[in-house]
Amino acid sequence: MTGKTGMSRRTDPAGHPLWDDAAAAAFTPLAGEVEADVCVVGLGGSGLSCVREARLLGARVVGLDAGRVGCGAAGRNGGFLLAGVAPFYHDAVARYGREPARALYALTLAELDRIQRETPEGVTRQGSLRIAESPEELADCAEQYQALRDDGFEVEPYEGPEGRGLLFPGDGTFQPLARCRALAAAAEGEGARLFEASAATRIETGLVTTAHGAVRCRHVIVAVDGGMEHLLPELVGRVRSARLQMLATAPTREIDVPRPVYARWGYDYWQQRPDGSIAMGGARDRAGEGEWTTVATPTDTVQDALESRLRTMLGVCAPVTHRWAAIVGFTDDGLPVGEEVRPGVWGIGGYSGTGNVIGALLGRGLAHKLLTGDDAIIRAFDAARPGAATL
User: Fold this and answer.
1) I need a labelling partner for 230 at 20 to 30 A (CA). Which of 64, 158, 169, 192 fits?
2) Rounded to whole angstroms, how far apart are CA atoms 166 and 157?
3) Mean pLDDT over residues 195-201, rounded?
4) 3-state secondary structure (DSSP) of residue 381
5) Number of compact structural domains in the chain
6) For residues 193 and 119, what is the distance between their CA atoms, to the nearest angstrom?
């Protein structure tokens, strides 16, 4: 099928993300057997953060990826850097309790600062907007505003060209694939061993096997968001994979979007890149159950909904140059997985569409827990889970 722009959606079924704008250094596939203290499966944002932190703590680290660095959701998302977990802050307070919700929000704000320091190229902290598109959503924004202010976090009422809602000054945007590549290069320079095109065919205590090699190690960390329940069957029923879709336009100055925007209860989101291109995602609810899948192929239903918003609500006529999809993991409670699923094998993922900051935080936190015994970050997430003792 050819869309309104004349760009065939079938030419590149996997979809080419806007972010893949430069050739990356290639890492060789694993061949033979190697030994390590830590083996990290999955070289996206969370996996690479874990690799680097473990290496900086003195561990021998091997990282594996089934494809290339950042080839999953870490390099194919909307490029938003948002504080907090998946539920809006007032919903998190109601669901997890005030102190656990406040602790997690504070940790993610600090992680945003760390991400900016660690990979400043391509990171912009211009704030973000939540725009309400109904009276009910505007009332919900008022509840979110009050909960954040009550707990001492920055938030401002907003009214402007995008509409009415809230401004979160600490949020921002980044180039997600560029960050993954920068983290991988830094990790290799610090002594980590990274291997691409090395899918884990078997994961067991002390051993990860690939088609042409194996890693013997003390700790295995599976840092895979989308499809996590297939690599770790223990998580079936707790993590469910979904497809998130995006499109991007050629550079344009038809509109000026100085901050990333998420609207319609967070189902739709967009930002304008420094060159003027618009990156837009969402509309997952428009396709119903069909988006619960591990097939990362853009679909007409969602792409038509995204393009309709682009044309009719934003008023952008620039041609669509990219259409792509990513697979991410969702959990029922909105909290990510970060636990030992079998002896010596840990899983982190299930970020419910908000993994850029939370994933980096969990990756570092797990490295500290396993290598130094400092479980402060992991404990903060555990404290929010049902049945946890009130802090």
Assistant:
1) 192
2) 5
3) 98
4) helix
5) 1
6) 20
